[in-house]
Amino acid sequence: MTFIKTVSSRLCRQFRKVVWNRRKYGTEIRNIGIMAHIDAGKTTTTERMLFYSGYIKKMGDIDSGNTVMDYLPSEIERGITVQSAAISFHWNEAQINLIDTPGHVDFTIEVERSLRVLDGAVAIFDASRGVEAQSRTVWMQADNHNIPRLAFINKMDKTEASFTNSVDSLKRRLKANTLILQLPVIQDCQYIGVVDLITMERMEWDMNVVNPNQHGRKYNKHKLTRTDEGWGNMVAARTSIIEQLSDIYDEVALLWLDGENAGNAEKFPTVELKKWIRQGTLDQTIVPVLCGSSFKNIGIQPLLDAVVDYLPRPEQIQHSFLQYYNDTLSAMAFKVLHDKRLGSIIFVRVYSGHLRSGGTIYNVNKQSEEKIGRLMSVYADEYKDTKQIEAGNIAVISGFQNTVTGDTLVESKEAFEAAVNKANVLHRQQDDGNHSVVLAAVKIPEPVFFCSVEVYSPTQEKALRHALDVLCREDPSVRATIDDGGSIMLSGMGELHMEIISERIKTEFKVDAYFGPIQVAYRECPSVQATHKAAYKRTILDSNYEIEIGIQISPSAEAGTVTDPSQVLKPLYNPELCHSAALGVVQAFQQGNLLGYPVMSATVQLLAVRAKRGCPPGLVTATAIKCTREALDKAACDLLEPVMNIEITTRGENLLQNILGDLAKRQAKVHNIESSDNEGNMKIVAEAPVSEMKGYASRLRSSTSGNADLSLQISGYQVVSEERKHHLKNLMRNFG
Ligand SMILES: Nc1nc2c(ncn2[C@@H]2O[C@H](COP(=O)(O)OP(=O)(O)OP(=O)(O)O)[C@@H](O)[C@H]2O)c(=O)[nH]1
Question: Which of 286, 378, 386, 709 could crosslink 280 through cysteines, CB 3.0-4.6 Å?
Answer without folding.
Answer: 286
